Amino acid sequence: MLGADGALIGSRLWATRESLAATSAKRAALPATGDDTGRSSIFDILRSKNWPKHLDFRAIRNQLHKKWEGRIDELRANPAAAIDDYLNGVEQGDYDKAHITVGQGIGLINDILPAEQVIRNISEEAQKLLNRADTKA
Q1: 10-136 maps to CATH 3.30.980.10
Q2: What's the pLDDT band for 12 if we cut at 50, 70, 90?
Q3: What are the contacts of 31-38 at 24+ separation with CB within 8 A?
């Protein structure tokens, strides 16, 4: 309605019943807001991924992430203990250590619906907005 060419709905579809993400991760993400997320290479380092800086990703800023914020060079130079901590978190489903990849829109997501319902809701809301715009024209 405001001239957008598209929409980013990855986090909304991530938080659906059909998503392959762990249900416990989805539930842990629901109380988060966009301010609880951060984009950095911390989890790339902890996952032993050597992505270029411009391809890092956004995740919830959990305890492990916060520990390394502002210390990425130190983490990169000696990651072994932090990687062990991260992998232990993954194994235990401990999201204070394991990452939850979501976008800034996570604060708009309050439930875990079937993907079909999410798409239906988006379509119905878009149709209502289009109908409202037609009546104002």
Answers
A1: no
A2: very high
A3: 32/60, 32/100, 32/102, 32/106, 32/107, 33/106, 33/107, 34/103, 34/104, 34/105, 34/106, 34/107, 35/107, 36/60, 36/61, 36/106, 36/107, 37/61, 37/102, 37/103, 37/104, 37/106, 38/65, 38/69
Q: Residue 71: count other Cβ atoms within 10 Å of its Cβ.
A: 12
What pTM value is reported for the model?
0.85
Token pair 């520990």 in the structure block, residue: 67
Beta pairing partners, 59:
38, 101
